[in-house]
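Sanity check

After download, print the first record. It should look like this:
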Amino acid sequence: MKNLDELQVEEVKANDLEEKNRKEEEEGDEVDEDESMEWDLRNTDSVFSELSELSRDYLDTVDRGASIRGSAEQFEEILAQFEELKVLHELVEPARKALISRVVELTDDRSALTLEVTTLQETVARVEGRLKEKEEEIRRLRRELETCQPVDPDAGLPASMRHFSRSEMARVVMEKNQYKQRLFELQEALRHSQTLRATKVDRFTADKSSSVWKKFNRLFGLSKEPLVPPPTSALVLPASSSLNRSPQGSPKLPTIGKTQAESDGPAGVSPRARRRELYREIRSHVWGTLGKRHIHGWSLPLANTQDYSGEPVPEPKDVPVLVQLRLLDQRDSTAKLNCAVAVTPEISGEATCSVWVVSGPASCSEITVIDPARSNTVLDQFSLPPTAPALCICAVPPVESSAGTVWIGTQEGSILIHQASAGRRRCVRSVCLSEGVHSLTYSNNQVIAGLADGTLAFFSQTSDGWNLQSHAVMPLGANPLQPIRCCLAKGARLWVGYWNKVHIVDTDNKKVEQVLSVSERSEQQVRFLCAGGSGVWTSCRLDPIIRLFDWSTGRPLQEVDFTSFVTKTLGQPYLTLSPLQISSLSIISGRMWVGTGGGAIFSIPLSITSEDISIPYCSSAAVQLSYHGHRQAVRFIIAAPGCLITSPGNSHVTTAQLILSGGEGYINFRIGDDASEEPTEVSQATPQRSERSHMIIWQIPCPSVPSPAL
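Expected structure tokens:
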């Protein structure tokens, strides 16, 4: 019985346990379903969205001690902290990116420096190896030299008998040529001085023989001249005196007898005062010989003067008219004129012609661009690089697609190319040659440069412009070398002055066709070539003679010595200013223009009727002197065609051709130098206004046969 009761009790317990397990399983299933529903309804966007979408049954399962509404302040605090963290994150993120970029940059730099260090270490090692090799080679060569030195044939010879290298021989030859040229110049000056001294002695002898009779004439009243001679400063020739006669009553001879005017006169007299006395003597001679009449500032032809023994000639109708005396506006008042070129409207594309003038001291050059038709108008002014002075200038017309340009050659061998119109100051292209550039000539789409070593350089035009690097070179002769200072182009032929000869060159084949001898003296140098008609006039340095040659055959046709012209028109005192020589030569508008070393300008009409067949002969009877001249050598005489001239009194504009001469100072030979007297305390080194660079500008009054564009 007891066992039965125990079994029943155990059975009831088992049933209770089973019921309890079943309830626990059901509660576990409900919890799993609630958790799965909570997961499905969860929203990660915001806490409010997540709680608002839950059911009330789910909320009841939450702990009843928790209050969602009571935690609103904490929630706002959390949101504020979140905003602060977000702002901090925005500030930190750019800094992080910049730091990463800097780290990458430093890493790259470190890699590059490491590579460079490695390369330098390799270079150092390689250089050290080469240095060791060179040291070994030096030791070897030293041993060989010590071995060969006893057998040197020149070891026991004096220095004057040893062998020289080719470079040393070339240098010695060049120095010898320079000394030889200086010797020729001194010989020329000596011959000139001896001629003047002989004239002075003859005049002194004549005056001495008549001095006794003059004193007796004054003593007995046969002459009205005073017994006491006038002061020596009054050295003025009377109008009726001959060329070689001294002024009466002067106990001293005039200051004629040496090459320079400054070498005569008392020691206390300044060079300006002595030159002023010479200009007074020249003025007296001009008034006495050429008379009062003049034609537009030019003397009458020599045949129409009172002392001329030949037949008179008709007065010319095409005498150039003086239109302007222009003081060149230079930054440096002591600068000297060198050369100039006219840039026509066809070259520049502008409405009128402009003139580029090169001036400056010996170290550098300055370019002044002027309009010759408008007085005191400077279009542009700029300086060239201060490396070497400019020696020549040339205007090059537009070719194919290139615009007109101006080429400038310098003493150091550079050629500078500037635009002819807009942007003149900027050097668009340049090339540096081995020798100095002494002449530039344009011919048949080529620019020919004459160099200091007697070589011609030919620059040609290509589709891309001027080919400056690969230019053709043509030497004219062997030693001794001489600069090429003048060239004349006409068609496919080029006349080149070299020493005392003219080389006729075919510019297409770059060959010398013919060689002409201009002077019999081998030391002479051809300096000027100008063409008119079918002839060419030439002139040599330190030579008063000009010579005419036929263009086609090279046959000599005429020689003209300007010594007689100068002595006739200006008298013997003019020769003391400077040795007589031709300093410029041009043919413009049917006239030959000749500038001398003393500043005088002569003009001679030529017999030109056609530019193809006419021989430009000149007649000494038709020579005219310009009373307007320079105080020193005439540096250039150029033509400026295409200038716009405004007629005085109205606004009518015409196109005319002007002629410009350039030189240092200005002088009117009919007036003299009286207007330039200054106090003795004025410095002699400071140039006066009349001693500064001037240009004299003329205009041809009527059209004549034009000369070829050279």
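If your output differs, re-run the checksum step. Summary of this record's structure: The first strand starts at residue 321 and ends at 327.
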